[in-house]
Amino acid sequence: MPAHGVCRRQTQKMIPALIKIGILIGGLMTAAAYFVLLERRMAAWIQDRIGPNRVGVPLSLFGFKDLALWGFGQPAADGLKFIFKEEYTPAHVDKRLYVIAPIVILAAALAIFAVIPFGSMLPPLDDFGIPTGGDPVQLVVAPGVDVGMIFVFALSSIAVYGVILGGWASNNKYSFLGGLRSSAQLIAYELPMGLGILGVVLAAGSLNLEKIMQAQVNGPWFAIAQPLGFLVFVIAAFAEAARLPFDLPEAEQELIGGYHTEYAGMKLLLFLVAEFLHMITASFLIVILFLGGWHFPWITGPADAEIGWLTAIIRLIVFNTKIFLVIVFFMMVRWSWPRFRYDQLMSLAWKIMLPLGLVNFVAVAVMQEARHALGSKAENLGWTLMVIVFSWGICIAAWVVAAWFNPLITDNRPRRMLATAEVDSQI
Amino acid sequence: MADSLLPILLFAACALALALGMLGVASLFGPKRQTAVKQMAYESGMDPIHDAHRKFDVRFHLVAIAFLLFDVELLFLYPWAVAGNATAGIDAAVAQATELGIGYSRGLVFIEVMVFVGLLAVGLVYAWKKGVFKWR
Fold it and tell me: If residue A137 lies in a helix (H) or strand (E), which one and from where to where?
């Protein structure tokens, strides 16, 4: 029965995939919850106050003294609170879209992780009674997807749908304005993000995330080889994840919360978790694309086929430490920078980030063509050093030129005090 | 590729199920107390006057169009970026063309891409001068 055989083989493939999905979704949701706690503790530390440090293990239920544990019970308590909040839909909203919006945004934010590796690989698990056929276990749900980068890019732009649907369906003026503003922000920063990715794809010659990481083993990290692309990508990632200084979508002071003004309870939680997941995704991407994933330059360890437990665990630790540090950087920035004004945000995207991204792309393309023309002569340290010096020169030059022409200059006089010619000259 | 498609679909289904499940659990356990004020749109304590689905600034529309243009142009660059060093990439195509006696070279492809990027840059400058990115 061939059909039966195919079916069985598929089922056997599904089981490891399901286990990985379980680990990943569970891990991500827990991570999101505990990163909220970490963020609140860091906020408290930066603002010189105490922060949530009371909720721990409620042992007083059993007659013992409560255990505070630096507020480690806070995420669980928050989750319970959200479950017991009223799940309510106002009368004036478009009911279907109102419910669909948070579901779309969370499902898309999670589904991105189908192609993102969360570790290198484990040795074959046959010794533990888990049949893996003698192959190492890759720590990614869908291994070997050759269009991984496109998939990530496509799914991350679905976030715009959640935002605009939520803003429109709420039928509230704050939500409507907030939804428009944040969708314009998200699409504007997708271009520099795509250009930053394009430089990496060009240098690595592949859209496969594992191959992009592999390309950073025998050379410098792309953060060092393409500083301009790194800068553009990181700034765009901050804007895409709607983190300060780009958290215009939330804008508590101006729009009462932007597109989720009308949301409460679990639906609001879905939006907030999705926002946090965007930040985690951005950190994964920054580490994978620009900081070498689980590799250090020129330090590879054994080939993938004969990976041992020691290498596997070291790689896991290195990878996740890098991601953790990037997330901490995200949080430090949040409490260090003031928010942009909307016109500054848009002109940064279109007038600075997009041209800089194009400059980076052209520079990388020229270097790649030169390397291809040189062939094997380019396989030495001298060439690598030359590439680094060239790209840093380009980065500094482009930045200086952008600062020199400074299209970000803004006249803060009210518009009624300006002549028409003056308004036009500020374009 | 088809092998890796199935886990992706499975993941998407699980993500959807999680979102729906969270909403379901909350609507199961939460209280249900509707009041007239709760049903109103929130406008900082004022009674809302109109429906919120009204005219909006045309600049959002312009930004969306500019985004579409540049994003599509950007997507055209991805195949070239991947084909540069691939085995069945530009070199193979150039070799094939040379075999057929067509004057084609890697340098020409590169120049074409640069012209394409140049057009992108000209488009950007044009939109800029037209005031598409003006937010005042």
Answer: strand A137-138
